[in-house]
UniProtKB/TrEMBL annotation:
One of its GO terms (molecular function) is nucleotidyltransferase activity. Residues 9-58 form the Nucleotidyl transferase domain. It comes from the Bacteria. CDD domains: PC_cytidylyltransferase (cd02523). InterPro entries: GlmU-like, NTP_transferase_dom, Nucleotide-diphossugar_trans. The lineage of its organism: Bacteria, Bacillati, Bacillota, Negativicutes, Selenomonadales. Keywords: Nucleotidyltransferase, Transferase. Signal peptide: none annotated. This is Phosphocholine cytidylyltransferase family protein. It comes from Selenomonas timonae.
């Protein structure tokens, strides 16, 4: 499979981000500013720089607040997730999949601060997640084989692995398969609290071939708490 240009991205931004309260009491987490810059604009600017022309935001909590982005990003489209309060983000993936938006597409968590916009590249070859190597972690992580194919996903590891970041790319074939699997699981109430990454990397792992695309710890920051946000702001100021 050769490299080809990617034209589509889906940004998952339906959740409330309760751990970032009180900053998320009135706005969605992706719109919380880091040194004056809303988190999600680092994603949008990187997508624009890479020539990604179709960008869809799946929104839920305070969804109308995202309309303010239209002035600077007039090409944005939205999907409103009515289940954002009662289900996990598998609900957002299921919705995007029904519209065919996962095929040949980046899927990006809306609360990622992209310190290095080059992690979004104009071309891709195979389904992958960006991740960085660690000796151990208490966060989501991947085990891989010698070729970098993901063989296991977990919420922590006491051995060398790759720590997961919520930025992935799905080929047309894998995107169609992901959509079908997501909607198959979502029909069952018992699966509605899944994190969407578990679909391909846990419940249907033999049906997918997902690799890591290695990045560094400094490239992308996930912000979960006010303390993490303030620490990142200080880090940026000191650079």
């Amino acid at each position: 499979m050769g490299a080809h240009r990617v034209t589509r991205a889906v940004i998952l931004a339906a959740g409330r981000g309760t751990r970032l309260a009180p900053l998320t009491d009135r706005v969605p987490k992706p719109l919380v500013p880091v040194n004056g810059t809303p988190i999600i604009t680092t994603i949008l600017d990187a997508l624009n720089a890479a020539g990604i022309s179709s960008i869809t935001i799946v929104r839920g909590y305070c969804g109308a607040a995202f309309d303010a982005l239209h002035a600077a990003y007039p090409h944005l489209a939205y999907i409103d997730n009515p289940d954002w309060e009662t289900a996990n983000n598998i609900s957002s993936i299921a919705l995007a999949g029904r519209d065919g938006l996962l095929e040949d597409s980046y899927v990006i968590e809306g609360d990622l601060f992209l310190a290095n916009p080059a992690v979004i590249t104009p071309t891709q070859e195979r389904t992958n997640y960006i991740a960085f190597p660690v000796e151990a972690t208490d966060d989501w992580c991947f085990d891989t084989d010698a070729a970098g194919k993901i063989t296991h996903i977990d919420t922590a590891s006491d051995h060398p692995c790759h720590q997961m970041l919520g930025l992935s790319y799905w080929t047309a074939e894998d995107g169609r398969r992901l959509a079908a699997c997501a909607n198959e699981l979502y029909r069952e109430e018992c699966y509605r609290q899944l994190y969407w990454d578990e679909i391909a990397l846990k419940y249907y792992l033999p049906e997918f071939s997902v690799h890591i695309r290695e990045c560094t710890r400094e490239d992308v920051w996930e912000i979960d708490t006010v303390e993490e946000l303030r620490a990142l702001e200080e880090r940026i100021k000191s650079v």
